[in-house]
Amino acid sequence: MEYAVEMKHITKAFSGVKAIDDVTFQVGKGEIHALIGENGAGKSTLMNVLSGTFSYHSYEGSVLVNGKEMKCSVPGDANQHGVVMVHQELALIPEISVAENVFLGHLPRNYTGVDWKKIYTDAKEVLGKLSLDVDVKTKVKYLSVGQQQLVEIAKAIMLGGKILILDEPTAPLTDRETDVLFRILNDLKKEGITIIFITHRLEEVFRLTDRVSVMRDGKMITTKPTSELTADTLVSYMIGREMKNMYPSDVTEKGELIFEIKNYSVEHPEYAGKKIVDNVSMKFYKGEIVGISGLLGAGRTELMMAVTGSYRKKGTGSIFLEGKEVVINNPKQAIRKGIGFVTEDRKGNGLILDQSLSFNISLASLDQIEKNHILSRKKETATAGRFLKELKIKAQGASVPAKSLSGGNQQKVVLAKWLAVDPVILILDEPTRGVDVGAKYEIYSIMKALAKEGVSIIMISSDLPEVIGMSDRVYVMSEGRVTGELEKSELSEETIMRYATDSARVREESTWVK
Fold this sequence. Notes:
The protein is of the alpha/beta class. It is 33% helix and 27% strand. The chain is built from 18 helices and 24 strands. The protein has a 6-stranded mixed sheet, sandwiched between helices. Strands 18-21-22-15-23-24 form a 6-stranded mixed sheet, sandwiched between helices. β9 (163-167), α5 and β10 form a beta-alpha-beta unit. The protein is globular and about 70 Å long. The model is unreliable at 506-514 (pLDDT under 50). This is Sugar ABC transporter ATP-binding protein.
C-alpha cells in the first residue's frame, strides 16, 4: 500500500507525562481511515502532531507525508504539505460571508486589492463540488450546522487539503445531514483525497471507513481493515476488556410518585403565538429512569429548562413535587428543591473550563460548603476528592482546570457537580454525547446506582439504542406535544420513531375516518 501519511515512533509528553508513547500510524493514499479510542487515548495529541499544532521540536519521532519528511515549526506549516484539520468546534466567523470564510486567512489579491470576483467564483465552484447550494455572499450565521460543516470542508480544500483530518464531524449533525456528509466524503475519496475520520460512533466506522486504527492509553493498539472487525472486537480493543452488554442490567424498583408536570406550555421565544411546549403532562417516580425521546426541535430540552426556571420564557401549567404544587422561577430554587440538571452543552453551560475541578464540582452546592457566606476551601477540596474517586475521574488532582480533561471525564465532573447537591430528581440532557464507549458505560452505571438509591432520573436523548437500553419508561415528543408514553416492553426504534414523527396519531386518525 502506498501511504499518504506515515507517523513513526511518535512520543509526546506534557509535564513529563506521556500523552502518546512510541506510536506508529500509517494511512493509505485515497482511503477513509478511522482513528478511534476512548477520551484521553491520545487521538487528539497524535492529530495535533500531524496537523502541525505542535512544533517538530516538541516530540520524538518522524512524520512523512507522501514519502517526504514534514517538519512543522508553527501552526499552518502542515497546510503547505496538504494536511488540514477540521476541528469539532467549527472555526467560522458568523458575521461574514460564506465566501470570505472559505478563503479565511488567505484572501486572493489583484492589483486593486482583494480579488472579490475570484473569491466568489472559486467559493461557488468548491461548494458546488460539495453539493452545497447556497449564495456565497450569505452570512455564515444564516446556515444550518450541517451547511457550516461543509463550509469548513470547503475551506480545508481551498487551503490545498489533500489529507483531511475530521474530528467528530457528525457530532452536531442530524441523520439527514450525516447522510449528505458521508456521500460527499466518498466523492472526495474518489478524487484521491485522503481522510482521517475521528469518531465515537461505531456504526459510522462500519458505514464509511476502509481501515481502522485503535488507540488506548497513549499507545496504538491495532490497525485493521474495517471488514475484518465487529463492534464487539472494536470495543474490546478500545477499553482493553470484553464488554458483553453496553447497558448495565441492574434492576431498579419503582417507588412513589415524586414529580409531576401538568398541562404545561411554553411560548416560542421568537414566534409570537406559537408554543414550543404545548400542554404537556408527565409523571416521574422514585427509582425510575424515564427517557424523553423525539426529533430535534420536539421541545424536550425547552420543557425541562422551563420547568427548572432556566429557559428564557416562563412556562404555564402546574408542577408538583411530592404531591405539593411548587413554583420554580430560577435554577437556584430548583436546586434547593433537590432538582439537578446536567445540560446538553457541557463546555458552554455545564463547566467553567478555566477553573479547577474543585471549583466546578462545588458550584451547585455552595450552600453546603459555606458558613456565614465564607467558602470552606477544606470542604470544597474534600467534596471534589470524594467524587474524583467515586466516579473514577481521570485527572492529576482537584486543582487542575476542567479544560485539561477528556470529554468523558468532563462529563463526569458535571455529574459530580449535581451529585454533590444530593438530588431527588436528576435531569440528564444528552448525557453521553461525544463520550467514548467506556465512559458511556460508567455514566450508565452511575445512573443505575442513583436510581437504586431512589433518585428519579429523567434522560433526554436522541440516541435510540440508549433510550431503549436505559429507560424503564419513555415519553415521546413531537412539535412540543407528548405523542406517546411507552413502557419498557413496548420499546423499539420503530415504535419510538412512529411517535416521534407523529405518524402513530396520523395512522389512528386515518383509521377513524375509514
